[in-house]
């Protein structure tokens, strides 16, 4: 054991001397390892941070939430012309579902794709994302009230002219004034602000900070329905612990009967689930990880060749010393381990430099990117350290073998 500790110490000294005596050559050799480790760990850290950010933003939403509408949220085999002829999902459909589908915890009728200009006195904000929705949206979207309240079930049913706005929208529209009870103008009508949502910050999805919510029945009073009318969707949150597949089957069967579809006729609606979107996000993140590994792998390959090159040069420069060591009784494995340790130490130094750069970049990025935290986890750092060690081991095998097999007499003669 003491012998191997001494061997490690000597190998470390040789590695440091290589760094000192051949600074440019060693720098260029280690650059590949540093860039490779930096690339891989940076990609892993960025993807992990993105994944955690997405999951935290979806944490308040139930993955089993269902969106029933004429539109598909993903690829579909239904041709475009057929989808265009699907009837719009209307408020009557929503009322049927709430009365006839069991095991629904909450549901909401939502009008899709509504943007409006909201005015208050001399201030006007255009292209505001307005969501006309019935009361159930409050629970389904897990909205949080900062001031005031959300509109009630009664206000939702009667289509009261009230609005709940996001924190950012309230700041831009009212500046220092108190927004509650103020009347704003939208849809060409006066609407009373009854609530302000808690500030969420920037989001990969639509942040509620710049959104507004009004009762869907308020908008239905002055807009047209029908095939070419306002596009709608029914959001359904099933009760916890249900068999979602069975629930979805009951929903489809009863809604088909309500729509008057025959057994041989295809559905004229789509049942979209939030879990499908999260699965798609997981697949995208997996692909991003894979692409990052492939790209970074080329850098690691170049780094490995660089380490192998510097080790072959080191063997050649120390041929005389190797011959003397073997003539004094050094075993082949001693010479082998000496050069293997040296290669690993050089690679680990490059890996540690790469990890340091990633750590610095993550700190700087977290300071400049608001509401997004870059995560450099212990496991990612362990992966980086392990990879650099593995690169050193693989890169040093051939030079170490060539050194261990040198004939001591020939080695001394060659080195003189």
UniProtKB/TrEMBL annotation:
Residues 294-408 form the ABC3 transporter permease C-terminal domain. Residues 26-253 form the MacB-like periplasmic core domain. One of its GO terms (cellular component) is plasma membrane. Pfam families: FtsX (PF02687), MacB_PCD (PF12704). InterPro entries: ABC3_permease_C (IPR003838), MacB_PCD (IPR025857), Macrolide_Exporter_MacB (IPR050250). It is a multi-pass membrane protein. One of its GO terms (molecular function) is transmembrane transporter activity. It comes from Formosa sediminum. Belongs to the ABC-4 integral membrane protein family. It is found in: Cell membrane. This is FtsX-like permease family protein. Keywords: Cell membrane, Membrane, Transmembrane, Transmembrane helix. The chain crosses the membrane at residues 27-47, 290-315, 335-368, 374-398. The keyword Cell membrane applies.
């Amino acid at each position: 054991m003491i012998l191997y500790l001494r061997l490690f110490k000597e190998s470390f000294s040789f590695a440091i001397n290589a760094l000192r005596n051949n600074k440019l050559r060693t720098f260029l050799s280690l650059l590949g390892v540093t860039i490779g480790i930096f690339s891989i760990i940076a990609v892993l850290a960025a993807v992990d941070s993105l994944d955690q950010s997405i999951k935290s933003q979806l944490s308040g939403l139930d993955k089993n939430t269902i969106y029933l509408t004429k539109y598909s949220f993903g690829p579909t085999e239904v041709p475009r012309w057929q989808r265009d002829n699907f009837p719009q999902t209307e408020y009557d459909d929503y009322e049927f579902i709430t009365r006839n589908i069991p095991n629904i915890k909450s549901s909401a009728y939502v009008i899709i794709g509504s943007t409006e200009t909201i005015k208050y006195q001399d201030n006007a904000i255009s292209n505001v994302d307005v969501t006309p929705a019935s009361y159930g949206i409050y629970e389904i979207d897990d909205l949080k009230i900062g001031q005031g309240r959300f509109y009630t079930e009664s206000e939702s049913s009667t289509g009261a002219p009230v609005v709940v706005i996001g924190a950012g929208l309230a700041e831009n529209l009212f500046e220092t004034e108190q927004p509650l009870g103020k009347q704003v103008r939208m849809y060409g009508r006066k609407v009373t602000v009854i609530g302000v949502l808690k500030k969420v910050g920037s989001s990969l999805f639509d942040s509620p900070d710049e959104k507004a919510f009004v009762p869907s029945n308020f908008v239905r009073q002055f807009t047209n329905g029908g095939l070419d009318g306002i596009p709608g969707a029914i959001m359904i949150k099933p009760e916890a612990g249900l068999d979602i597949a069975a629930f979805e089957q009951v929903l489809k069967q009863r809604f088909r009967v309500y729509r008057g579809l025959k057994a041989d006729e295809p559905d004229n609606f789509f049942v979209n689930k939030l879990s499908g979107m999260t699965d798609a996000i997981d697949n995208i993140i997996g692909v991003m990880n894979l692409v990052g590994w492939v790209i970074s792998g080329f850098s690691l390959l170049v780094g490995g060749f660089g380490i192998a090159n510097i080790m072959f040069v080191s063997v050649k420069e120390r041929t005389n010393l190797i011959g003397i060591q073997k003539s004094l009784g050094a075993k082949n494995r001693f010479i082998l381990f000496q050069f293997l340790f040296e290669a690993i130490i050089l690679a680990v130094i490059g890996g540690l430099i790469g990890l340091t750069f990633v750590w610095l970049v993550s700190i700087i990025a977290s300071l400049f990117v608001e509401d997004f935290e870059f995560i450099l986890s212990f496991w990612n750092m362990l992966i980086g350290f392990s990879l650099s060690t593995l690169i050193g081991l693989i890169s040093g095998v051939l030079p170490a073998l060539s050194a261990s097999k040198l004939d001591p007499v020939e080695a001394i003669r060659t080195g003189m």
